[in-house]
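G., before I forget:
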Amino acid sequence: MVDRRLRWVSFVVALIGLGAAGYLTYTKYAHDGICGVSGGCTVVQTSTWSELVGIPVSVIGVVGYVAILAALLAPQRLELVRLGLVVMTGIGFLFSLYLMYRAYITLEAFCPFCTTSAVCQTLLFLLSTARFVRGPDLPALVPAGEDDDEPAVTTA
Amino acid sequence: MPSGSKSKQEAARQARLEREAAERAAAERKKRLGILGGALVVVVVIVGIVLAAGVFKSDPAENASKTNGVSGVNETRELLAGVPVKGTVIGNPNAPVTILELADLKCPACKAHQLGDQIEVVKQLVRTGKANLDLRLVNIIDPGMGTTDGERARRVADNLIASNKYWPFVNVNYYNQGDEREEWATTEELQKLATSVGAGPINERETPATRKSEADAQRLFEGLQAQGTPSSYVKPRGTNAYTPVNSDIGSLTSAVETAAKQAK
């Protein structure tokens, strides 16, 4: 049950992150880099660190969140899926950490949506790591029919 | 068999099972932690390689040439070489289409456009005679940032319209643009930029010329309901119909082609 709850919390956090990254992508394309919420968004979104190999980092964020959501929807008993989540969220967490360093220390700018996404990536990494170390819920502890990934297992 | 002995055996079996289960769990956890460690190393290596490769967007101003401490003087000269410059307009004054751009000297997005797509706009649309380019300055950053130097820089630029040094000054300004939150456009800095493009002593005071150009730009900005800067429009020759268009070269090229068909 614990793993199931952690998975759903991860799902909600990933959706929030997707919303933040989606908004940043929208402002990047629709308003040509003008955020409209705070000056910091303009500074951050037009800075050197706003694009990676020519792709806006917010777009990479959207793709990352979609991949995380897809992995969360995949059968969770597969170790590879859980490990994949750790790797994906780990990369997202480290990138967010670097981008937050650039935003707050180098640019001295506050970007609320960038910060929201960074917090989401941090939480997702912690949740994915905890889930991987714990392992899946024991089948006997899952009441029949509650885990939609697995056939129901009941105690004799 | 006596029941006491049986229960002892059962208890011992239970204890053994629990011990074995605990050992299995410990071994499993140890295995998982090992895998986790390996995965984290992979993560750090991937992120490290990407950051070390320096694949983030490069600032074109950083790679520009420097002349007496001013960036982009040579690049500006190259951009405008052989292109007619008259006031706020570059290119053939009788071109079938006019591209209007509304910009702010302190706007970082305008800098990105001016040092990026604008170079192609001049090369592909202005130099070829397909369009001329009218760049008007508005002041939208100062009010939001609590600064005043954007207005000073704009006045200096507008006072250079008559001498046709407006365009080179504006372009060099973007190469040397500072942080939008700071008062970087000081009198000394603006004089340095003006000197670099061959202009004389700057005038940062309000004049009839600056009042007119500011009023014209503001009228266009409000009349066309621009939402920010840079904002681009195309206008067929002989008409007063401005069509909004994205500032990238692809959008501008197709908009110019369409507008050219309506030129009078």
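The radius of gyration of chain A is 18 Å. Chain A touches chain B through 28 residues (CB under 8 Å).

More on Monday.
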